[in-house]
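Case 426 in the screening queue. Each case pairs one protein sequence with one candidate compound; here the compound is heme C. For every case the pipeline is the same: read the inputs, emit a complex structure as tokens, and attach any notable structural observations.

Predict complex for case 426.
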Amino acid sequence: MNLHPRKLLATAALGITAVALMAQYGDSGDPWWEPGTGRNLPMFSTFPDSTGDITIVNMEGPIATADHPFFQNVGTNYRACITCHQPSSAMGLSTDRIRQQYVDTRGKDPVFAAIDGSNCPSLPQADPASHSLLLQRGLFRIPLPVPSNADYKLAVVEDPTTCNTSTTYGLATNTVSVYRRPRVVANLKYVLGTDGAFHLNPTVKAQLAADGRDSTLAQQAAEAMHAHEQTGRSLTPTELQHNLDFESQIFVAQSADAKGGDLTEVSGPLGAWALGFNKNIKTGPNQPLFLEASYWTKAAHGNTGHTPQTDFRESVARGNAIFMNRSFHIRDVAGMPGGPTSGTCASCHTTPLAGSNLDHPAMDVGTTAYATVAEAKAANPTLPIFKLTWNPNAAPHPYLGREIYTTDPGRALTTGRCADTGSIVM
Ligand code: HEC
Ligand code: HEC
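Case 426 output:
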């Protein structure tokens, strides 16, 4: 059966009346979700963002969180998964929210824990400057082991956070600290590539995290328990299943735009519903990525004069056409099969609605790896810079060779391969 979301909504095939849907919208409560409060996460929660609203949808209905390991602190530092994957930040964590929380709690919230909520645990924790990467850029410290199969020498060239040269936390202990934002814990079927079912197959292999180091959600959850929540124990099988069930069925999308109006209406993109119901998570030829070409074009409005709303919507439709069709020369990208080529944004961002890529998720598009230290510093003055010198026999990075300056080696930290330096999962 073709479960097109628009048809479903139009015929109310879910048995949920529009009135009931509306009643659950807006039940968002306090925008900061403390772990352990036991409040329910409704089927719909809507939160303002800088251009309108986002809506979170639990496809399977409201969730009681009282005993739920995603929402309860199961570690030793009063954090839970929800601490860094907040509904009001689209299941990630926005810098606005982080700064507000710093003001509201005078920097005492567990999100600022020394271990990774500061630039380095050895810095004076009461000083906001010690949390500058989190406060200014939303970045947590991710300490990773230098891979044992690494065919390179790694040197610290710049260390603005002091952590990579620290004798307790740094390279001396075979640890590399990179700084990364929380990834969105929603819409995960577009990351894991399971075919449309609400429940993800926990054994499906994917590339999770910026460097793709976790290949299943179970592995990722175990890592988060240990690294972010500082707990010695593992999740029980029941707790793990709760987390996987939750992560399987939660979707998020922009639901209203200040100019564009309602983005969930039946004749429009439908927001998070569409992400939840969509079965087409693999790209095929001529697959529309974000919009079905027609619904926001000038023709669709019947040329009935123009308002700020129709202007905005037509602009979105034109942008979508550019994203899908405007061809440009793609070069100096590592990890894209086939070498330099002509393509569009959609040549890399292939997955319908989400813009991820299930076949080649990690590429180096030049956001973290550079040929010279000056370039790296100019782009990222507050991040550490590493110099990677690869073994002369290693297959070189296709355009940076074997001597690379980088603020985050990305996938090379997982694979130990020169050619993967700077490759980040999109
Ligand atoms: C201290 C903040 C913090 C806490 C607490 C936390 N996370 Fe995360 N989470 C992150 C960061 C940062 C990343 C990105 C890591 C990277 O890219 O290396 C991430 C990434 C993820 C991802 C990968 C998503 C993707 O698309 O690749 C999942 C899934 C996830 N977290 C689930 C969890 C779960 C489950 C828990 C609780 C057991 C948890 N997180 C606790 C900060 C946190
Ligand atoms: C060669 C492949 C490729 C092409 C072409 C490409 N992208 Fe990307 N894009 C990526 C990768 C890989 C990432 C993640 C890399 C990173 O963060 O360093 C990314 C990240 C992004 C992000 C950030 C997403 C986020 O969650 O932070 C946006 C937005 C984006 N691309 C938009 C575009 C647009 C618009 C175009 C067309 C003008 C485009 N991309 C063309 C590969 C590509």
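Case 426 observations:
- Residues 323, 330, 333, 336, 343, 345, 347-349, 363, 365, 367, 424, 426 surround heme C (ligand 2) (CB under 6 Å).
- Residues 1-28 have pLDDT under 50 and may be disordered.
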